[in-house]
Amino acid sequence: MSIPVQSIEGSLRNVRMVYGALLFSIVLYIVAAEMVGDRVPHDIHVTWLAFLACCCPLIVVAIMVRAKMVKPAAEILQAQPNDSAALGRWRTGITTSLVLTEAIALCGLAARFLGGTLLQATPFYAVAIALMLLWWPRRP
Fold it and tell me: What is the pTM of this model?
């Protein structure tokens, strides 16, 4: 049984649905952390720095994925819209970069659950939301 080749429009629709779910989940992380998180702040300065040290490479890797996978695949798809290999790389690159961005928001959630303040979690949430908004999936 062969796998049907998906069109650019179908792939774009699917990627945008994943995008919407991931962006909505970041909002849910913020709400959940504020509703359930520890109300008594703890000193998580060292943990916060560790989260920061983990998130910086995540940002770099996400940018590299977009540069090495999404951009070349999009250029191929502009010239050859029926190239299924390029479409697969484009989808995979976008999804991977969005999931890496989601991991940044999860660091904010973890910081909040470990007793950090909203002010300590906000940079993680803000960077994740900013990257998500910057990387809205566009038609190649």
Answer: 0.89
Tokens describing residue 19: 């995008």
Yes or no: say if 137 and 16 are a contact pair by the CB < 8 Å rule: yes
Interatomic CA distance for residues 104 and 51, integer angstroms: 9
Q: For the chain, what is the domain count?
A: 1
Contact 94, 137 (CB under 8 A): yes
Q: What tens-digit pLDDT sequence spans the chain (140 residues)?
A: 444 457 889 899 999 999 999 999 999 999 999 998 667 778 899 999 999 999 999 999 999 999 999 999 999 999 998 899 999 999 999 999 999 999 999 999 999 999 999 999 999 999 999 999 999 999 88
Spatial distance between the Cα atoms of 127 and 140, rounded to a whole number of angstroms: 25
Q: State which residues form the domain around 108.
A: 8-134
Inside any domain, residue 1 = no
Asked, for residue 56, whether it belongs to a domain, the answer is yes
Residue 38 domain flag: yes
Residue 3 lies in a domain: no
Give the closest residue to 127 by CA, choosing from 18, 43, 36, 54: 54
